[in-house]
Amino acid sequence: METTALIIEFFTYSLSLISLTLLLLVDKRRGDGSLRGLMAMIASLTALLVANLLEHLFPLAVFSTMKGLAAASMIFITPWFSLRMLGELYFNRFPQVPLLVYALMIALLLVVDALFWPISFLFFVLYASLGLSIVLTTSFILIVRHQRRHLSSPEKAESWEIQVCTVMAKLALFFMPLFLLFDFWRFVPSHLWFHDLVSSFSAAPLFLMIWNILLIYGGVKALVFENSSQSLSEILNRWESAYSLSPREREVCKLLLDGKSYKQIENALFISQATVKTHTNRIYQKTGAKNQVELIHWMMLAQKGENQPIS
Question: Were 212 and a residue from 19, 69, 95, 289 both cysteine, which residue would form a disulfide, CB within 3.0 to 4.6 Å?
Answer without folding.
Answer: 19
